[in-house]
Amino acid sequence: MHRRTSSLRSYLCGKTDESALLFQTQGSVWLSKKQISSGGRRPKKKIYHRDHNLDKVMDLQKKPSLILHLKSIIESHRHRRVLLRDLEKEVGFVQKWNFMALIEKYPTIFYVGGGSDRTPPFVTLTEKAAKIASEEPEARSLMEPILVRNLRKLLMMSADCRVPLEKVELIENELGLPLDFRESLVPKYPQFFSIKDVNGKACLHLEHWDSSLAVTAREERLELEGVPSSNPSRKQVRISRDGNYSGPFAFNMQFTAGFRPNNSFLEELERWQRLDFPSPYLNPRTFEAADPKARKRVVAVLHELLSLTMEKRMTSSQLDAFHSEYLLPSRLLLCLIKHHGIFYITNKGARSTVFLKEAHDGTKLIAQCPLLLHIDKFVALSGRRVLDSCNQIASSPISSRNYSSSSRLHD
């Protein structure tokens, strides 16, 4: 338990008078806020309710991650096969046994051959698995305009329209970038990107600003829903009990089951939902950090960053790496916890992970890109059912809009 909560605790920046401690119970996490006081008052406690569905997402990804890891090892070899005796060299002694169990458990994906004196035992993909794996280049091709669009948006949000390459590489899997994107993708689009040295670091620079891309995923959703561009009067529209509000500056709220907001909370939330704020695509240096509008803008930046990823999530350390590029608050974790209707932090897995709540329906990701659809198709050979939403997403209005706008990059 202590190891799981330490990753969150380490995120509390600025070791000052206040520090947050987290205590996990079966259904929630207790946040105990120490306060310096001569009166010896008891620390205030707030409950951070757990979302069991999003916690379960982290558990459900363990087996597929191993399957895809072994697949990539097999495909990295010249003859697309790995000798079982060499598996330890690839993954280490302990992990080798996990992969051996995986090979035995999923004969529909992995085939073990050889075993005679002339041919030592080896593992390769089955014919059906190899056929699906051969479709990956097509999925990558469909992903390219989406990746170019998202990379441009990522750079447009940064303070100097540039991001160190090492930080882009830190989230390359989350974005869906190929491992060699620096050589295979960036040089193909010199009108958009360039790599320049800044203070001894290679940085990805934006070469062309496109105001048509300076529209957030939140704004696209509101436009599709027909939300008016100005706040309605308080008499016409009031905030609902679930925290949602129909206004141009509102965020989608999805509070975890068990959280019951009282009237004072809802009144404060309504004022926040109505508060206008600058676009995440405007230079953050022009705003005063203490301004409530600037603080709400930070929430929009975090929302947009997560929206640009394939699975609408990042680890806490990945978000933390972009402090200087997006001028994120020093107490990033507290910001995420405060807006628990928008973001969810889970300690499941090796690292704490931040989810964008509105992008998920239970354990399912609502919108999927071509690469995720391909991955689901491959993993489905293990007997795991492909998400029901996959086929629906390909023809959904917001997906069609994103893909069509991305495809214009080639025009």
Could you give a quick summary of the protein structure above?
Helix content is 42%, strand content 14%.
Polypeptide structure, described:
Residues 49-383 form the PORR domain. GO terms for molecular function: RNA binding. InterPro entries: PORR_domain, PORR_fam. With 411 residues, the chain is α+β, with helices and mostly antiparallel strands. 42% of the residues lie in helices and 14% in strands. It has helices at 2-9, 52-60, 62-76, 87-91, 93-105, 127-133, 136-157, 165-170, 172-175, 181-184, 217-224, 263-274, 292-307, 316-320, 323-326, 332-338, 370-379, 389-394, 397-407, and strands at residues 20-24, 28-33, 44-49, 81-83, 110-113, 122-125, 162-164, 193-198, 201-206, 313-315, 343-346, 353-356, 360-361, 364-365. The strands form five sheets. It has a three-stranded antiparallel sheet with strand order 1-2-3. The protein has a three-stranded antiparallel sheet with strand order 4-6-5. A three-stranded antiparallel sheet has the order 7-9-8. Helix 7 (136-157) packs across helix 17 (370-379) and helix 7 packs across helix 19 (397-407). The chain starts with a helix and ends with a helix. Residues 1-26, 32-38 and 386-411 have low confidence and may be disordered.
Q: Termini separation (Å)?
A: 53 Å
Uncertain residue segments: 1-26, 32-38, 386-411
Integer-rounded radius of gyration: 23 Å
Portion in strands: 5-15%
Number of helices: 19
Strand tally: 14
Largest sheet: 3 strands, antiparallel
Order the strands across the largest sheet as they lie in space: 1-2-3
Question: Helical amount among residues, as a percent range?
Answer: 40-55%
Judging from the principal axes of the Cα atoms, what is the shape? globular
Label the structural class: alpha+beta
| Mean pLDDT over the residues | 84
InterPro entries: PORR_domain (IPR021099), PORR_fam (IPR045040)
Domain PORR: 49-383
GO molecular function: RNA binding
Pfam families: PORR
